[in-house]
Specification:
Distance between the termini: 104 Å
Largest sheet: 8 strands, mixed
Number of strands: 12
Mean pLDDT: 82
Low-confidence stretches: 1-29
Order of helices and strands: HEEEHHHEHEHEHHHHHHHHEHEHEEHEEH
Oligomer: single chain
Structural class: alpha/beta
Radius of gyration: 27 Å
Strand order of the largest sheet: 4-1-5-6-7-10-11-12
Number of helices: 18
Shape: globular
Strand content: 5-15%
């Protein structure tokens, strides 16, 4: 009996020891790495003394006075000298950025932009109860991404020391992806410190809107303007009275069909062609174009042209600034796909979270592309194929995808095909969620991706499939996409536009009558 017990104990211990050797492998995919979150631009910025600074606010009186100052300099002859007009516009605009603009060398005016953040990042602390924000890296979003990446490197080392972990998950949002990319590119053997990278609506690779603005390629599209106003008339309240705003949007649609909007945008375009070479560099370099970080969001299609327009003839004065912008462009923007593929081969897991079905502001030629309101879906997703806003993928395209066996990556609304992404199985899409919004459900998704360490895919969890829908009114997520359109649609012809306008006019007048009756 004793021998039997001893033998049984030996067998048990042997099995236990053998099993123990497999435990690290069994749970390796589920190891929880600390998540370092790199937010986008827009958080508070500070001077060298720790005082919060910002662009100056403007009120209604300022706008009215500035408009008067500019309009009185409009030349009577359209082919005349526009320099006084440009000077007037610049003089109204430039003072608003006195406290926040950078010098010609791409450095802050007081030399101390990152002081506050060095203090904040010195002590490792959890900033929320959500794992996605456990370790939130703060930075001055104006600074050269490579300079910020140096501070990120120090911060990551502190996180690793504080947690006892060997690696982190990097989560970059918007501009934060440019910082993350600079860190990944500059850090030797970075795979020894980073397990996962999550690009949440990334700006690295190029934001078309910034490229168009800095290069002067402003395009006014009356159809896109009509669509943009219609889409946003409910969510973006400009006027106090929603009925008035709705009426004005309907009026714009009617005016477009009557060719009035087209004539107006055409006239503005003709003026712009005469002034942009003088005006764009001055306005850009006195504001956002003075920030090296914003140049990191100018893509390959626009960069060289934007650099020539803004810095042309001033290369010597702006030499240090150009050096910063060129460094990021040549080492990250141009090489982004190469960097990601190389680091993937070394064991780092990349994932993307993208948004779609919200139009880009209609001032650039990309305004008809699928986007999140700021950046095109192709950039946001690492290469998704999509139909233009208001359209769907063609029947022939879908049939070809079926033949190739990639139709499982096509959204139910037939707008997006994820099969062309860098990581089709690790790219998620949310429909009808604007760029600036980050609901809790995306934080939960980020946590799941991090803990999966490359094994969590769009097919892993029915709660987070590849395509999801956001409810603009409630902010709730539905784990599916309806094939039906979810945006307000612009009228298809002049008769419908006229009917829509008259309906909105009747509602507005009815509301006015009700108010008058209540006050009498």
């Amino acid at each position: 009996m004793k021998n039997f017990f001893k033998k049984s104990l030996c067998v048990f211990l042997t099995v236990l020891m053998i099993a123990a050797t497999f435990v690290p492998f069994a749970f390796a995919g589920n190891e929880e790495y600390p998540m370092v979150y790199i937010r986008g631009y827009g958080n508070s910025i500070f001077d060298s003394k720790g005082n919060e600074i910002d662009a100056k606010d403007v009120d209604k009186d300022y706008i009215l006075n500035a408009t008067k100052d500019v309009l009185k300099e409009m030349p009577a002859n359209p082919n005349g000298d526009w320099s006084r007009y440009c000077d007037a516009l610049y003089n109204c605009f430039a003072p608003l950025y006195d406290d926040v603009r950078f010098n010609k060398d791409g450095e802050p005016v007081d030399g101390g932009a990152t002081w506050k953040y060095r203090q904040l990042n010195w002590v490792i602390h959890k900033t929320s109860n959500f794992a996605a924000y456990d370790y939130c890296f703060d930075y001055d979003w104006r600074v050269d991404p490579y300079e910020t990446a140096k501070e990120l490197a120090l911060y990551i080392d502190k996180v690793l020391a504080a947690t006892g972990k060997k690696k982190v998950t990097l989560v970059g949002r918007c501009l934060g992806t440019c910082i993350a990319a600079a860190y990944l590119e500059m850090t030797e053997n970075v795979e020894n410190k980073v397990a996962n990278v999550i690009f949440n609506i990334p700006s690295v690779g190029g934001v078309e809107l910034f490229g168009a603005l800095f290069s002067g390629n402003i395009v006014l599209d009356d159809v896109a303007l009509d669509r943009y106003l219609t889409e946003n008339s409910d969510s973006k309240q400009i006027f106090e009275d929603p009925a008035l705003q709705s009426l004005l949007v309907a009026a714009v649609s009617l005016a477009r069909y009557c060719k009035i909007v087209g004539v107006a945008t055409g006239a503005v375009t003709e003026i712009y062609k005469r002034v942009y070479k003088d005006l764009v560099p001055r306005l850009a370099l006195t504001s956002y174009g003075s920030f090296p970080s914003f140049w990191s969001m100018v893509g390959t299609e626009y960069y060289e042209e934007a650099k020539a327009l803004c810095f042309g003839g001033q290369e010597e004065e702006y030499a240090k600034m150009i050096e910063k912008t060129d460094h990021f462009y040549n080492n990250v923007t141009v090489r982004l796909t190469e960097i990601i593929k190389d680091l993937t081969a070394k064991g780092i897991n990349f994932s993307y979270i993208a948004k779609y079905n919200t139009s880009i502001i209609p001032v650039c030629k990309e305004c008809n592309l699928q986007a999140d309101g700021v950046t095109s879906l192709s950039v946001l997703s690492g290469g998704a194929t999509s139909a233009d806003i208001g359209k769907v993928l063609s029947a022939s395209y879908i049939e070809e995808a079926k033949a190739k066996g990639t139709d499982k990556y096509i959204s139910a609304d037939k707008i997006v095909d994820a099969s062309t992404c860098l990581f089709p199985d690790r790219t998620w899409f949310v429909k009808d969620l604007p760029h600036a919004e980050t609901p809790d459900y995306l934080d939960r998704l980020t946590e799941r991706i991090s803990r999966g360490n490359g094994n969590y895919t769009v097919f892993s969890d029915s709660a987070y499939p590849q395509y999801m829908s956001n409810d603009p009114e409630t902010g709730a997520m539905t784990p599916s996409v309806s094939p039906e359109p979810t945006k307000a649609q612009t009228p298809k012809d002049i008769l419908k536009a006229l009917f829509n306008f008259l309906t909105k006019l009747f509602r507005f007048l009815t509301k006015l009558s009700s108010k008058s009756a209540a006050n009498s």
